Amino acid sequence: MGSHSINGVAELHTELLTKDTLGDFYELFPHKFSNKTNGVTPRRWLVQNNPGLTKLISEKIGEHWITHLDDLRQLEGFADDGDFRYRWGQVKLDLKRSLAGHIQQRLGVTVNPESLFDVQVKPIHEYKRQHLNILHIVTLYHRIKQDPTVNIAPRTFIFAGKAAPGYFMAKLMIKLIHSVAEVINHDPDVGDRLKVVFLPDYNVLCQILYPAADLSEQISTAGKEVSGTGNMKFCLNGALTIGTWDAANIEICQEVGQENFFRFGLTADEVYQRKAEGYNPWDYYYGNSQLKEIIDLIGSGHFADEDSTLFQPLIDSLLHQDQYMLFADYQSYLDCQDSISRVWCDRDRWLKMSILNTARCGKFSSDRAIREYCDQIWHSSPVSIQLADYVQPQTALRVDS
Ligand SMILES: *Cc1c(COP(=O)(O)O)cnc(C)c1O
After folding, report:
1. Closest ligand 1 atom, CA of 40?
2. What is the CATH number of domain 42-362?
3. To 10 degrees, what angle do helices 82-107 and 51-61 make?
4. pLDDT tens digits, one per residue of 177-220
5. Extents of the domains making up the chain
């Protein structure tokens, strides 16, 4: 009632606000509602965090893109340039080597920098479904145990992020990641085909995690994520996204093109529909033998020194009352991951997609978002400042005081 303006921070979320969450207010005050899709600042999330890629980009298209991110479109033309693709790949490989060094130092785990770096870095929450990611990892592990000669494109799964201190289920998800990692990283049948790591200290490491990613995991239950900004940080650094049709993922896919995005899972409408019909996880459990086998494997205590009680609360929630509907998206997620492994093996194609992701994410600059707030919400106009005065710290101090 007291608000001058109400905005969702991605198109889907604004739509959900006006139709559902705040539907009656929207009927009364439609003029107050608008969408302002979030953005991230390219100065921190690319220039500061990824000097190698910044240098390569600026060498080709100058530096104007740093304050006008739409200029990255000029990179599109270089996606077909073999020499440029090679250098793009080398920058990424250097970042992955450096991250591999941190992982070795911090966790004592040796990861292969040439493997696919599959990264899920974000707050730990059931709606963000880090445990769906784990179901994929356990499925790959299960495949290897059933047939140690099976052909699997090598992957390094990297997790990081914090859980709220009192959020029991999120803490249990972190425990599950560690437990699965412990078994997989030491199984000689697996070798160096799969490695799983949970990196502590998101605050310190995020700067190198986003730039070093090949694949960005944005796998929230459709309708649950508000916008996401991690998805934008990854895309800016040339990671490809595996994502649900949720939040800003939708807009990223629209910008980069569906041929450069890995989409899976139910839509928000389908999630509501499935819930209205009565979502029954047991149908999926008994209907999908692969799913049943891996859930039973986790439930058996295989990853918990044969303690079958440790992960029971997590399994119970998946089987009895899972509002995040992991099982409904499981097969689609798996199929999508399998197609990603095939594309990964075609290095030229992957690099091309990576370049196009960076080239087409200009919309997700916070400069654009802030300009929209200024123009359409605050009705404030730009003021010219002498930037040179502000970049001198001492001058800035004098101005503040
Ligand atoms: C980017 C960022 C987020 C948002 O991450 P999502 O993946 O969009 O959930 C949250 N916290 C910090 C500290 C971040 O840097």
Report:
1. 1
2. 3.40.50.2000
3. 170
4. 999 999 999 999 999 999 999 999 888 888 899 999 999 999 99
5. 6-37+367-378, 42-362
